[in-house]
Amino acid sequence: MSQNKKYLLAFILIAIILTPLGLIAQGPAWGEWSAEEINTMIGYVPQSIENTKPLIEALIPDYEISGLNALASTWISAAIGATLVFMIMIGIKKSGKRAS
Amino acid sequence: MHIPDGFISPATYLPATVIAIPLLMVAFKKTKEAINDESFAFLSSLTAFSFVVMMFNIPIPGGTSGHAIGAAILAILFGPWVAAFCLSLTLFIQAFVFGDGGLSVFAINSLAMGFVASFTAFYVHKLFKNRVNHRIVLFLAGWSGIVAASVVVAVALGIQPLLGVDAVGHPIYFPFDLSVTLPAVVGSHILFFGVVEGFATMLVLKFIEKITNQSVNKEVVV
């Protein structure tokens, strides 16, 4: 492995290790509220927000893995996300090579 | 800034999807061309970084939170199209696997945090790179990219009360109008998350310059 690749790998691993720092924030992003939170704020839930179901149920909703604590969930979620990125990028690299 | 399902009317997300599909096709083609043995490690680790950095939620006054997105780093290194694709890939994984951002409104999230952030950061960097202090330009590219993205999200959310009310006059979709969304979403990015994105851009690109011994001000770094 080249020196640069080692540095980049260390960089992304450190970033993943530090992700639980994001758990310090209690509140959601502005606007990204649940139906209950909106109900508390304005006294009703707009129809579309009440009735719209996601097209596909997420595998790991809100980066929380059932049965695991927040710390482990966050680390595993970050590792899964980063791994998926690498796998898809490898796929794109291979498809580009085949085409050329 | 990840808009969930149900918040946005089809009258908004369908046109956004029609606009985003050809743009994503171009961005995908350009990414395929840019990805080679040398660039692969940088492209994939910095895209992974954009995924990871969005998990660093930073609390701000008012009980809400937000995060950097890492778009400017990719835009400065690989150009705006490649960055827009990489960010869109991150957003797709977030929506599909983690339910963070709705799949029905994926196009709006992709246009905002993918395309608008990347193109703004790229051109701000290009415009100022040899005129202003290097670190300040990197900061400004990050700051302006995420602030521009926040404008798109604030407008998409803020026009929803105009696009549908029920029998009793309640909005069907997102209930707050532009007079609320603009200060809340854009204001918080100008003051807080833009600053975080600016410093993240500066620090990560200085790190890349250090390990490659090249300036990111040149056309192609890796």
Characterise this structure:
The complex is a heterodimer of chains A (100) and B (222). Chain A has 100 residues and is mainly alpha-helical. Chain A has one domain (3-20, 34-99). Chain A is 59% helix and 0% strand. Chain A starts with a helix and ends with a helix. Chain B has a single domain (10-212), classed as Orthogonal Bundle (Arp2/3 complex 21 kDa subunit ARPC3). In chain B, 68% of the residues lie in helices and 3% in strands. Chain B has a two-stranded antiparallel ribbon with strand order 1-2. In chain B, β1 (58-60) and β2 (64-66) form a beta hairpin. In chain B, α3 runs antiparallel to α4 (80-98), α3 (71-78) packs across α5 (106-128) and α4 (80-98) runs antiparallel to α5 (106-128). Chain B is globular, with a radius of gyration of 17 Å. The chains are: A mainly alpha (100), B mainly alpha (222).
What is the compact description of this entry?
The complex is a heterodimer of chains A (100) and B (222). By secondary structure, chain A is an all-alpha fold. Chain A is built from four helices and no strands.
Helix content of chain A: 55-70%
Topology as H/E string of chain A? HHHH
Largest sheet of chain A: none
Shape verdict of chain B: globular
Strand content of chain A: under 5%
- The strand order across the widest sheet of chain B is 1-2
Please tally the β strands of chain A and state the result.
Answer: 0
Mean pLDDT of chain A: 93
Question: Spans of chain B with pLDDT under 50 lasting ≥5 residues?
Answer: none
Mean pLDDT of chain B: 96
Helix amount of chain B? 55-70%
Strand content of chain B: under 5%
Tally of individual helices of chain B: 7
Structural class category of chain A: mainly alpha
Structural class of chain B: mainly alpha
Cα radius of gyration of chain A in angstroms = 19 Å
CATH topology of chain B, which one?
Arp2/3 complex 21 kDa subunit ARPC3
For the largest beta-sheet of chain B, the strand count, sense and barrel status come to: 2 strands, antiparallel
Question: What's the number of domains of chain B?
Answer: 1
| Uncertain stretches of chain A | none
Q: How many H/I helices of chain A? A: 4
